[in-house]
Amino acid sequence: MAAGFGYPNDGLMAPRTLVVVHLVTIGWLSLLMLGALLQFLPVLIGRELVWPRLPPVVLTLLLIGLVLLLCGFLALDSLHGLSADILPFGGLILLSGFCLAAAILFTTLLRASSLPLPAGFVMLGLISMLVTVMLGETLASVLAGLVGGDFSLALVEHGVGLHAAFGLGGWLTLAAMGVSYRLVSMFLVAPERKGTLTAVAFWSAAVALGALVGALFALIATNTSWPLGLALTGIAAVLAVGAYLIDIAALYRTRRRATLELHMAGAVAAMGMLGLGASLLTWALWSGIESALAASMHVLSLGWLGGLGLAMLYKIIPFLTWLECFAPLMGRITTPRVQDLVNESRAAPWFVLYFAAELAGAAALFLKVQHVFQLTSMLQLLGAVGLVVQYVRARRLADLPTAWQNHPRPRLILPATRKRSVV
Predict the structure, then answer these.
(1) Is residue 73 within 8 Å of 19, Cβ to Cβ?
(2) pLDDT category, 248, cuts 50, 70, 90?
(3) Tens of pLDDT, residues 268-305
(4) Could you tell me if 342 and 311 are in contact, meaning their C-beta atoms sit under 8 angstroms apart?
(5) How far is CA 229 from CA 45, 215, 225, 236, in A?
(6) How far apart are CA 218 and CA 223, in angstroms?
(7) In the 8-state DSSP scheme, what is residue 211?
(8) Is residue 98 within 8 Å of 25, Cβ to Cβ?
(9) Domain 260-403, CATH
(10) Nearest 5°: phi and psi at 228?
(11) What residue spans define the domains of the chain?
């Protein structure tokens, strides 16, 4: 985006824009969300993950499928040496990877004695994920010319919006809501939310997803959209987002940890982006302004989901590193706190830069100021790189107080229990 690749240099449905969109939604957000679920779904339901040796297979399938999908989009852009025929092949590999991930997570969920509401959000998200990838594979076949006729025309005209709604609004947002309910209460030392607002958020999300499925069936059956179903989806989705944000605000108010750590302050900014993005998307759909739609997608993907992911990683990476390095030493020697593995004063400016650039970038998209958008994308990239450096420092124990500086460093990616490392 900083180099001017994709929208607004190209059209909203141009192949280059599709490359950027799928890099973000699959390469960043979906991999992040699946990693989070594979790690924390057992915490949500109190059961071990089934088939724990299969997640590396999922990762491999998703990476291979994503590369092939992106090459297929570039082939549509007339890049020499590539054929658009690899589009549905890449989509098929992606579909197999996502289905395998869903099988692991669904089976783990079904083994729970009871499902708390956060796990219900995750289940809705997984259903949305499967619909998203199946619809995406169908669209890939249409773009490659394998599916024709009136259905293909209707699918391109109406199905792309449904694909985005199931993916960004269903899969990623609902899963993020479910995971964040548990993580926010855990990190804030606050009682879990189980009241009316939580139920309203969940059932509104379920209604929105049901109406969206109805709109998809109407498209398949009649080759046209279902305005009533889409309107119901929008109303229920707004209600779900509103109830969720109010519920999360109540979690913050009832916390026992008085001072907000940096990752929770970053989560506040991300949830503000959810409110802003949902409001902007509602207005964009009502007004039909393309630049407003693009700005809302930017805010929801990189501000809400990307910002929440960056904020949670700032705590999760040190936490997992502490478990690996220091938890076995508890009771035998004095150990550092998880917070001792990070330096908040060094990391805070990068969060500020990231979220400020996000707001400026969304404004530039809305106003169609291309060069300003490229500049803000560069600044946002700089903020993201700065945060990645902080994650690496935490993993390498670079910010530990002097008393623990001589502690052996863990491997950067693979845990110490592995006999080999590819790093």
Answers:
(1) yes
(2) very high
(3) 999 999 999 999 999 999 999 999 999 999 999 999 99
(4) no
(5) 33, 6, 9, 11
(6) 7
(7) H
(8) no
(9) 1.20.120
(10) -65, -45
(11) 260-403
The percent of residues above 90 in pLDDT, for the chain, comes to: 80
pLDDT beyond 60 at 37: yes
For the record, the structure tokens of 127 come out as: 């259903």
Rounded mean pLDDT, 29-52: 93
Handedness of CA 115, 119, 125, 131 (dihedral sign): negative
> Over 80: is that where the pLDDT of 14 sits?
yes
Does pTM surpass 0.90?
yes
Phi, psi of 7 (to 5 degrees): -65, 140
- Whether 423 shows a pLDDT value over 60: the answer reads no
Task: Answer left, alpha or beta for residue 335, where phi above 0 means left and psi between -120 and 50 means alpha.
Answer: beta
Write the single-letter amino acid at 388: V
Residue 308, token pair as written in the block: 């929440």
Type of residue at 302: L
- Pick from 296, 280, 316, 311: which is nearest to 383 by CA? 311
What is the model's pLDDT at position 29?
98
Q: At what angle do helices 306-325 and 262-287 cross, to 10 degrees?
A: 150
pLDDT one-digit tens code per residue, 177-220: 999 998 999 889 888 888 899 999 999 999 999 999 999 999 99
Mean pLDDT score of the chain: 93
Nearest 5°: CA angle at 29, between 139 and 56?
A: 90
Is the pLDDT score of 422 beyond 60?
no
List the one residue out of 347, 348, 322 whose CA is nearest residue 335.
322
Nearest to 106 by CA among 133, 131, 137, 130: 130
Q: How far apart are CA 308 and CA 305, in angstroms?
A: 5
Q: C-alpha dihedral over 72, 76, 77, 78, to 10 degrees?
A: 100
